[in-house]
Amino acid sequence: MGRIAKDGRVPSANLTASPVGLPVRDVLEANSLTGARVLAGEAGLDRVVQRLNVMEVPDILPWVKPHELLLTTGYPLRNNPSELVDLVRELDERGLAALAVKLHRYLDELPAEVLAEADRRGFPIIEVAEAVGFDDILNEVLSALLHRQAAVLARSDEVHRALVSVVLEGGGLNDLAAELTRILGGPVIVTTPDGRVSARAGDQDGLENTGCFDSTGRFRVDDEPTGVRPHEGGFHTTVPVVAGRIDHGRIVAFSDAPLDAADVYSLERAATVAALAVTKQLAIDAVEGKYRADFLRDLLTGRIEDVPTAAAHARSLGWDVERPLVVVVAELDPVTVPTGSVPELRPVQERFATAWQSVVRWRDSKAPVVNFNQEVVVLLGLPSAGSNADAVERAVNELVRQVVGDGGGGRRSFSLGISRPALTPHELPRAYEQARKAVRIGRRLHGDGARASFDRLGVHRLLSLIPDTAELRGFVEEVLGELAADTPENADLRRTLAVLLETNCTVAEAARRLHFHYNTLRYRITKLEKLVGPFTDDAALRLDLALALRVLEIRGL
């Protein structure tokens, strides 16, 4: 269960950080408030005071602000004390911290219903000693508030300098997270914009039980807005990492109790430093990534003649290309990307490549993963010696599941192609072309989000080599005749024809698959032969019909 506040209330689903100020209970310790009594609303003594105001007019509401301690002699309400019930309600709804009243001058006592309303709302009403001047309270409490705010700023500045020093000394996000853990005392993670954990520090045990992560270990960015929020057994505070209007991710700090204003402010300063570290790392990665991508592109396109030397160079980059591999090509599906969002996301293709690199790294650290501008290419080691197509597809599907996660975070649909195994580096160019062809054909057959293996393309590989779609359409119309028309009845008849061809015109088997009565299927066969010819007796015609039905599966015809 979530934690319960001191007043017995369950914290709201989305809390903001405590503002910089003093709790009402600390304000009451001021010398000028010696002898003050809490008349009602004691449950709200942890409300934070940031400023003070004096009530001199009946219509004070337009002038009050949140987190104020409102002082009054009761003079504006001396003629109608019953209005105090409405006043308490309005002050509480406007976020005031407390109401301090000097009695026995214009009001001898507060009505019981006023005190009951204050107790119900946890809104403190304080009786101030008659001999105390408001100017003494104002001077002492405002001085304490200024000292508090100065201390928060000083601590935040100290934290900022410490974090900047980490970056200037060459530290990365893991070092920043470690420094934040030292400062805040709890575990810290840094995530990408879509929630993948890119750095962590502190004791991470039990974080998976907080409900903040999905089944793939990704932080639920879409369900976790910035600010302080409760979770099972504690709290976590999320701040965005933004630089140049680009969203670089989140910093999340976990704690047993809500972070106070000073710590949240420090965390926000840390996000600025983290953005600096991310930007620096992105610049380094861009240079290194281009070099790696250029090398791998040359290897995959057959431009490198000395393949053994290239394989040795790949080892220096941490890659192993001398083992059996399959080439996986993933392409984002074309969509209209909305513009004008604030903050903007990092370039989609760049984030897509980073996602693949992060996921593949955990499964196969020696597998090359590079971004070729319009496609991400992965050279994945076979799951085991002699792996068949099914085993390869299962391994790739698991990677896809982790890349996709549970949706959200700005992730886009993508299509993917898988090559046949390449047993030696010399076979990689052929495998690369197979994977690219699988992507193109898969998208034509199944549309966006297609997953296609070259081994399973069958005759579609040959059909894809025909660039003239008008010629393909003409072939379909010539072979199928009226059956080529796009109507529900024709679609049903084409389905019957396809099953008959798959069963070699075995009527009993086809009827079983289609759940038709034997005589119903015989009637359909007669109808089909009137439309397309005597296919049950003509093997050549059956071949043409099978090809025509395959052509119709290609989208865009």
3D architecture notes:
Residues 26-145 form the Purine catabolism PurC-like domain. Residues 302-441 form the CdaR GGDEF-like domain. Pfam families: GGDEF_2, HTH_30, PucR. It is elongated and about 115 Å long. The chain folds into 4 domains: 22-145, Udp-n-acetylmuramoylalanyl-d-glutamate--2,6- Diaminopimelate Ligase, Chain: A, domain 1 (3-Layer(aba) Sandwich); 170-281, GAF domain (Beta-Lactamase, 2-Layer Sandwich), CATH 3.30.450; 302-335 and 345-464, 2-Layer Sandwich (Alpha-Beta Plaits); 469-555, Orthogonal Bundle (Arc Repressor Mutant, subunit A), CATH 1.10.10.2840. It is 43% helix and 15% strand. The strands form 4 sheets. Strands 8, 9, 10, 11, 12 and 14 form a 6-stranded mixed sheet that branches. It has a 5-stranded mixed sheet with strand order 2-7-6-5-4, sandwiched between helices. Helix 12 (469-480) crosses helix 16. By secondary structure, the chain is of the alpha/beta class.
